[in-house]
Amino acid sequence: xxxxxxxxxxxxxxxxxxxxxxxxLLLAGICLSAMLxxxxxxxxxxxxxxxxxxxxxxxxDRLIANQLAYAFGDPQxxxxxxxxxxxxxxxxxxxPAGFWDGLRSLGRELGLAPAGNTVYVKRVIGVGGDxxxxxxxxxxxxxxxxPIDESSYxxxxxxxxxxxxxxxxxxxxxxxxxxxxxxxxxxxxxxxEAGGGFVPESRVIGRADWVVYPVxxxxxxxxxxxxxxxxxxxxxxxxx
Length: 240
Fold this sequence. Notes:
This protein has 2 helices and 14 strands; from the N terminus they run E-E-H-E-E-E-H-E-E-E-E-E-E-E-E-E. With 240 residues, the chain is α+β, with helices and mostly antiparallel strands.
């Protein structure tokens, strides 16, 4: 079968199966490109690696991080965020990233490779300008002097903190903690280190908005009302 002329125009009367194959490949390419763009810039999937956020998040839960959540605002008290702990929970690498490191990083950004062991998910307790305190066992967490009722999300049997602390969160940084306080290595565990336990907002990948797998755990991760009482007390957490 070749090229024939119809009213002076050349048309391809080649094999129909080959044309359909091209169309399918084009469609697959468009779908893949759209998926990569969504993963890179809009909604990125992550798998919860540990029990530090139980019972809000369980090990193996698949969540979606909204990467546009802070495009026009800052993280707020009570948000559950996914972030890269390099430079805060983990030291900066001693050697500059090589070619393969960069390729793996690109794969993670596009959602083609696992997030790696530098990515964490925690709840924001304090934002830039906040004073966050705990008296230790038996006491509540306070933010700018306001006691926070965390009973709606703390793991059953956990208390707010077994460690006493009194910190002021620097501008552009966050104080984060896991909901399963007894099983969470969070800002409290890095108090004596160079970063002071504070996570730079620039390292936040996105806000964890939905649990999508397994089906039995489907839920939205709404900001708890416990932090409403801190409105007007200072810090950029008062911005809306």
